[in-house]
């Protein structure tokens, strides 16, 4: 990736929590599988050059989408 000392935060949440992020930051109602908050773009990208950004994942939606795609899953 070219960022050997970079940082990336990953937050795993449920559908309720990701729906709150989705509405607050993207103005979209309801849950989604993942939301990315890149820190290497925009006017403040130079503040912390080693911070790649934040990834928020809904475990509920990921589980549901895997089941719908008939993917093998470990017991929950």
Strand residue content = 25-35%
Per the principal axes of the C-alpha atoms, what is the gross shape? flat
E-strand count = 3
Largest sheet: 3 strands, mixed
Biggest sheet strand line-up: 1-3-2
Q: What's the Cα radius of gyration?
A: 15 Å
SSE class: alpha+beta
* Cα-to-Cα separation, first versus last residue: 32 Å
Average pLDDT, rounded to a whole number, is 88
Pick out the low-confidence regions. none
Q: What's the number of helices?
A: 2
Oligomer: single chain
Helix content: 25-40%
Question: How do the helices and strands follow one another from N- to C-terminus?
Answer: EHEEH
What is this structure, in a nutshell?
This protein has 76 residues and is α+β, with helices and mostly antiparallel strands. The protein has two helices and three strands, in the order βαββα.
What does this structure look like?
The chain is α+β, with helices and mostly antiparallel strands and 76 residues long. It has two helices and three strands. Strands 1-3-2 form a three-stranded mixed beta sheet.
